[in-house]
Amino acid sequence: MSVGSVGEIVWVLGIVAWYVIRYPFERRAKRVRVVSDVRSRSEIIGLVSALFGLAILPGFYVATGIPGSADYAASAWAVALGTVIFALALWVFRRSHKELGRNWSITLEIREQHRLVSSGPYAFVRHPMYTSFLLMGLGQAFLLANWVAGLAGLIGFAVLFFLRVSKEERMMLENFGPQYRTYMERTKRIIPYIY
């Protein structure tokens, strides 16, 4: 088995694990009443971009090898690094869901009895779910030895992040007021101690 194939298998297993982590939270979230949502066209564009870049395009590449013209030689060190980064992404993803519990939603929503979560990964960054997507995109870039499929995750993440994060923070400020502003002052957005 080639190094490139190992990277592709690790990527597929990572995507399966991502879905296995998310599914029970998605089911539970449907049972909690939404009291406010700020969904918009730009949010849908961001979510579709992330799905396309982190799952659909690389999945198509892994299944078909297209676009093969963008392939480059895979290396064992890149696959090993990509595996570690993707595993870290899944750990942050799981921890973020666990901490949010009933507050979690895929779109920008405030749920009944919503509370401000500032424990676990939320003690370091305000948006660890985005941190996990950034890490997934980085992991994908190392796992898939293809300039298009490998980098698509980072591009999809960037579109989602820049279209959505400001709206999400505005929503949280409107809902939690000074409590959220204080939280913003002591945490970074997605990279602990940096940004």
From TrEMBL:
<feature type="transmembrane region" description="Helical">
    <location>
        <begin position="141"/>
        <end position="163"/>
    </location>
</feature>
<protein>
    <submittedName>
        <fullName>Methyltransferase</fullName>
    </submittedName>
</protein>
<feature type="transmembrane region" description="Helical">
    <location>
        <begin position="6"/>
        <end position="23"/>
    </location>
</feature>
<dbReference type="GO" id="GO:0016020">
    <property type="term" value="C:membrane"/>
</dbReference>
<dbReference type="GO" id="GO:0004671">
    <property type="term" value="F:protein C-terminal S-isoprenylcysteine carboxyl O-methyltransferase activity"/>
</dbReference>
<dbReference type="InterPro" id="IPR007269">
    <property type="entry name" value="ICMT_MeTrfase"/>
</dbReference>
<keyword id="KW-0472">Membrane</keyword>
<feature type="transmembrane region" description="Helical">
    <location>
        <begin position="44"/>
        <end position="66"/>
    </location>
</feature>
<keyword id="KW-0808">Transferase</keyword>
<feature type="transmembrane region" description="Helical">
    <location>
        <begin position="72"/>
        <end position="93"/>
    </location>
</feature>
<keyword id="KW-0489">Methyltransferase</keyword>
<dbReference type="GO" id="GO:0032259">
    <property type="term" value="P:methylation"/>
</dbReference>
<keyword id="KW-1133">Transmembrane helix</keyword>
<keyword id="KW-0812">Transmembrane</keyword>
<dbReference type="Pfam" id="PF04140">
    <property type="entry name" value="ICMT"/>
</dbReference>
<dbReference type="InterPro" id="IPR054851">
    <property type="entry name" value="Isoprenylcys_mtase"/>
</dbReference>
